[in-house]
User: What shape does this take?
Amino acid sequence: MKIAESVNRLGTETAFKVLAEAKKLEKDGKKVIHLSLGQPDFKTSEHIVDATIKALKDGHHGYVLPNGTIECRKAVSRKVKSLYNANIDPERIVIMPGGKPTMYYAISLFGEPGAEIIYPDPGFPIYKSMINYTGAKAVPVNLTETKDFSISPEKILSLINKNTRLLILNNPHNPTGSFTEKNKIDQLAEGLKKFPDVAILSDEIYSRQIFDGKEMPTFFNYPDLYERLIILDGWSKTYCMTGWRLGWSVWPEQLIEHVIKFCVNNHSCVNAAIQYGGIAALDGHEDELNNMIENFSLRRKLIVDGLNSLNGVQCNLPGGAFYAFPNVRKTGMNGQEFAKRCLYKAGVAIVPGTAFGSFANDYVRFSFAASRENISKAIEKIEKLLK
Ligand code: PLP
Assistant: This one.
């Protein structure tokens, strides 16, 4: 067998590898505290589950439109209007099986040999993986601890050249939990006006997980960019629906026919009944979401204080998402050694910074989507390990 060369350029998501190693330890009778996975540890709300079950009982079991049912797309449009006061035609919305396909299709639409795509490093590993897969040049924009891992408009704009086709942004940010405030995003949006040929993929999957009551600096705020703006969002993180595989995206009008072709060639359509659950989530009450954010806020303090109390560990306060990204260099270990020892010696599963790019050797990612009890226990265990 000879497989295509491009397949060798695909990367992966190490969080799943850490999970597999942790599960193996558990199978061997070891106790593991899981702080590696990027998913909320709360249940999907009952009204969402009920609407999905009802849809199945009502017979919504067949194929539906590849870009999503019109009811679901209208619900997204209503939500965007209520959250951001933006008017988005449902014909520009595509319902996806999760957030990832939006990434895959957007990068496939612009990536080819000779093209350049700018992406955050550290960042979600699939950006670089997909850029490499297409044969385009992956151009990292380094997010640094000294700047609180936030987006630097100057740095990004300085990387754009005549080959740049796409700029990928993620705010709030995985893996660092950084949150870039609106004034910086305004500055970037203004600067991007000088580069009308560069498309923007704004990954806003953590748009509802922001602390201290701050406003989401969404790219919906810039109608001038709509002709080249792709927004990635979805139900996974906001409504605790990671395993449902349901996402939504907004595209420039002229890209819609191409995106729909990707959908038809790849997944045909998204599960019909689940889209009813999606509508119930968007139109329903958000008590559980508010409760989750309150919980995350308490856990954030607990984990950051705990990490900063450890010898040689330094952690910035995350402004969004549910990740802490401490620097562990002063423990005498790099991120990879630290994560390995945490798993095998302390029974705490975390992800090394190298999983997220080439500028993150000294870091590890803790997900605080775990109970306060488990967070405290994990800190105690690591404290013992470091002693
Ligand atoms: N974008 C970012 C930044 C993520 O962290 C994730 C998942 O962890 C995704 C997109 C993908 O989300 P989904 O599980 O809905 O495909």
The CA atoms of residues 141 and 158 lie 10 Å apart.
